[in-house]
Amino acid sequence: MLVSALPSLLLLLLLSFTVRTWTSRPARVYLSYKELMESRTARFFSFGFNTSDYRILFLDQDQDRMYVGSRDYLVSMDLGNINREPLIIHWPAAPSRQKECLMAGRGRADECANYLRVIQPLNRTHLYACGTGAYQPQCTLIYRGWRSEDYVFRIISGSHESGKGRCPYDPKQENMATIIDGVLYAGVQVDYMGTDSAVFRTMGHKLPIRTEQYDSRWLNDPVFVGSLVVSESSFKEDDKLYILFRERSLEGESGPAMVSRIARICLNDEGGMRSLVGKWTSFLKARLVCSVIGPDGVETSFDQLRDIFIQQTQDKQNPLIYGVFTTLGSVFRGSAVCVFSLADVRAVFNGPFAHKEGHGYQMTAYTGKTPYPRPGACAGGFSVTGIHSSKLFGEDVLRFVRTHPLMYTSVYPLNRRPLLLLSDASYTYTSIAVDTVPAADGEYTVLFLGTGQ
């Protein structure tokens, strides 16, 4: 996901600088846009339509293509031959809908358009794409062919459908979307006014499920950042989706106004039978902490998660999560990169639940009896082999899940400190990509960090 301030798309083809992150004085390189173009390691693309919105980039490794979502346009670029003419689909909102949007006064003229916000592979030959549709989200199927050599890119006639619960109404809103086995999972604002945020499951063979509606204990004005799928045991029933976001805090008056979160849900969740019907029975969340303690003992927290990158390890159940965080205050402006182990995340979800007696009380660790199966466990999984559907969970489990979605313990980064800090600069980090490069003297971890400049 990338928002470019340029009128065209800049595609980085090669950037041959490395950072060995464990050295005491790592090499760091900052390149301005001008310097990058002069280095001849990048290619500048200019399309025949006027837009600066390039938020959605999707790399298709199977077909060696890059899909770009913009305002009213989708672009397919051949990474194997960058000089080849890109394939472009023009997909604007209907003129009647644009007129209705303007008359309603909901958005400015430039917002009453179809901003592409979801591009996901549905199968080997088709993509699923969604746009804001001038404040009336819409989705469609796109045929991309079997191979990149097919050189085809077109909308399937008659495949248009509502994008509610799949794509935001407002082009300024951030969202998360991923398709797993033909099922779409989305973190999105569901309604026209932007007051109903949800983690939604739609499409495919599974029942539609969402987070509890209008309950700030579950989600409180969230901004979705990303997600990852993890197979957590030899039982497929234990497969989970982890969602990363930031939201307004409810922990207490002494805490930060915004906090970063990681939540998880079971992919086989079917909702409850009497309580939580059509709602997640496995939704839990925990705080992600990225902070540093200064020489004076004062802790500076970077509470705004901006971007993530998932780095796989030899243990597929425990990837590393690299996160870019920024500060919220106006006095101190800074950025940090923190790295979290999913093993540490899992330990927090296996720990105590947060509990609050009522308004004005502080959060404490829940010390009462925890129902069985443990809230957040997956039906039919390793620890719940005797119950094969969440619809069979007892009412005590569902009541607990509804009222205790937050974990008491926070997730801290590796070594309990940021991997990288940036302060007193005119810019902040906004995006990240990570690579591991083998060399004669060992492996180098390379961080590519984008800024707002």
Automatic annotation (TrEMBL):
Keywords: Glycoprotein, Signal. It comes from the Eukaryota. One of its GO terms (molecular function) is chemorepellent activity. Pfam families: Sema. Residues 28-453 form the Sema domain. GO terms for biological process: axon guidance; neural crest cell migration; positive regulation of cell migration; semaphorin-plexin signaling pathway. This is Sema domain-containing protein. It comes from Engystomops pustulosus (Tungara frog).
